[in-house]
Specification:
Mean pLDDT: 75
Shape: elongated
Number of strands: 5
Strand order of the largest sheet: 1-2-3-4-5
Largest sheet: 5 strands, antiparallel
Number of helices: 1
Strand content: 25-35%
Structural class: mainly beta
């Protein structure tokens, strides 16, 4: 039971409702994208009847016809029109030019290092040789009174 109009519940008395009735249809056929579909539907009260169709990728057309009512529920019949075809594709290689195989070359051996001391002979005791590199500074000349047998060392 509905509350009277203006009560704190805000409910109103409902007398009756009209039977829903409508009908619509649409279609798309786009040759650029290949989109091809259509639908139509009609409702009279609690009974709905309609169909839709679409183009499948294999070239066939699928058509679905349906009905719905409170007694039988939803029922659909699916049909296919045409023969499925799956064209064979021959894939072409992306690279059409042969890629050369890399070759590895062994580098030529490096020349033997030159004697870095050549040209310094005779200057060992002039501060360019061992005494100049710190041997006399480490105490060699101070421990034995010089480098005996090695020439003359200067400090």
């Amino acid at each position: 039971m509905a509350a009277p109009y203006g009560s704190s519940y805000g409910l109103a008395t409902v007398g009756s409702y009209a039977n829903p009735n409508y009908g619509f249809n649409y279609a798309v056929n786009d040759p650029v994208t290949g989109d091809n579909k259509a639908q139509t539907e009609v409702r009279e009260g609690d009974v709905v009847k309609g169909s839709y169709s679409l183009a499948e990728p294999d070239g066939t057309i699928r058509i679905v016809e349906y009905t719905a009512d409170p007694v039988s529920g939803f029922n659909a019949v699916v049909k296919r029109i045409g023969h499925a075809s799956h064209p064979q594709q021959t894939l072409t290689p992306v690279v059409t030019k042969a890629i050369p195989t890399p070759t590895w070359h062994t580098p030529a051996p490096a020349p033997a290092p030159a004697n870095v001391y050549s040209g310094l002979d005779g200057y060992w005791d002039q501060g360019l040789g061992w005494s100049g590199l710190g041997w006399s500074g480490l105490g060699w000349s101070g421990l034995g009174g010089g480098a005996t047998g090695h020439g003359q060392w200067y400090h």
